[in-house]
């Protein structure tokens, strides 16, 4: 009798999904990433109900695009986050077309700090999340602001410069400085992943 | 670090942060073709920003969501199979 074994390595899970597995592999993949993706979507959209709805589309798209995953371009979590972010930005743009700019007022540091207590925050905010947040304290407020607007709001450097009333060169420098800080904490992140 | 390397690093950072213009991305593509080692910088930046984006406290998902996702996928698989059957039937 053949027994189905459940792959656990992230890249093996993606490979199994790429070969059409929408059972065990998808289920394990979902278990690994859904709560993180939901947190990101909720953060970006500001609406738990909309985020939960979009979560479905994100995982269908991840399954559909599994064969395109290339580990040379980034880790599995980077791919997952990139797809989720892209769908959330689409949803924000569509919302903006419908309702205009009214609800998009920016308050500095909004997206990068989550201190709010929600009943659905999982008790297992793991060492991984704690390590990450500790590491990201290296970013100063100016770096956080530009990365927030670019990554979580989908703004180009020109739009950010307009929004914050800064020269484009300053915005680019802050993005580069922030990304260098983030890159410097990668070893800490990798250690946290192994812990 | 020379001027071109600094420019390449800036473009990689803008790209990973989602702040690059189309022109920036085209320039980065051209630099990547010339210098494959730049891909490692782009990958590191992607992994770093992804770590930032995954640092929020995880939220519990509805117990029904996975089932809904699997249903959508099965429907999609069925659609592909039906199109294939239709195509084979015609030929």
Using only CA atoms, what is the Rg of chain B? Answer: 22 Å
> How many beta-strand segments of chain A?
0
Q: Quaternary status of these chains?
A: heterodimer
Proportion of residues in extended strands of chain A: under 5%
**Ends apart, CA distance between termini of chain A:** 37 Å
Summarize the structure.
The complex is a heterodimer of chains A (195) and B (91). Helices cover 66% and strands 0% of the residues of chain A.
Written overview of the protein:
The complex is a heterodimer of chains A (195) and B (91). By secondary structure, chain A is mainly alpha-helical. Chain A has helices spanning 10-18, 24-45, 48-64, 76-99, 127-136, 141-152, 157-164, 168-184, 186-194. In chain A, helix 6 (141-152) packs across helix 8 (168-184). With 91 residues, chain B is an all-alpha fold. In chain B, 77% of the residues lie in helices and 0% in strands. The radius of gyration of chain B is 22 Å and the shape is flat. The mean pLDDT of chain B is 87. Classes of the chains: A mainly alpha (195), B mainly alpha (91).
């Amino acid at each position: 009798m053949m027994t189905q074994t459940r792959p656990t390595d992230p890249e093996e899970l993606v490979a199994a999904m790429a070969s059409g597995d929408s059972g065990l592999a998808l289920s394990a993949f979902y278990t690994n990433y859904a709560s993180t993706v939901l947190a990101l979507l909720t953060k970006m959209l500001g609406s738990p109900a909309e985020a939960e709805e979009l979560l479905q589309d994100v995982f269908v798209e991840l399954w559909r695009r599994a064969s395109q995953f290339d580990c040379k371009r980034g880790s599995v979590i980077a791919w997952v986050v990139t797809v989720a972010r892209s769908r959330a930005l689409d949803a924000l743009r569509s919302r903006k077309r419908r309702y205009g700019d009214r609800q998009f007022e920016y308050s500095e540091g909004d997206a990068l700090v989550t201190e709010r207590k929600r009943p659905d925050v999982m008790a297992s905010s793991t060492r991984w999340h704690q390590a990450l947040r500790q590491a990201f304290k290296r970013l100063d407020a100016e770096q956080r602001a530009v990365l927030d607007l670019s990554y979580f709001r989908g703004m180009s450097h020109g739009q950010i410069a307009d929004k914050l009333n800064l020269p484009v060169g300053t915005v680019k420098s802050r993005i580069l400085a922030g990304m260098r800080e983030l890159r410097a904490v990668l070893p800490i992140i990798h250690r946290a992943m192994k812990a | 670090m020379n001027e071109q390397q600094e420019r390449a690093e800036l473009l990689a950072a803008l790209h990973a942060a989602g702040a690059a213009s189309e022109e920036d991305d085209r320039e980065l593509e051209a630099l990547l073709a010339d210098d494959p080692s730049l891909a490692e910088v782009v990958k590191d930046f992607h992994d770093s920003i992804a770590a930032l984006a995954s640092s929020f406290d995880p939220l519990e998902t509805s117990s029904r969501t996975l089932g809904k996702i699997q249903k959508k996928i099965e429907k999609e698989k069925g659609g592909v199979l039906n199109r294939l059957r239709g195509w084979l039937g015609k030929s």
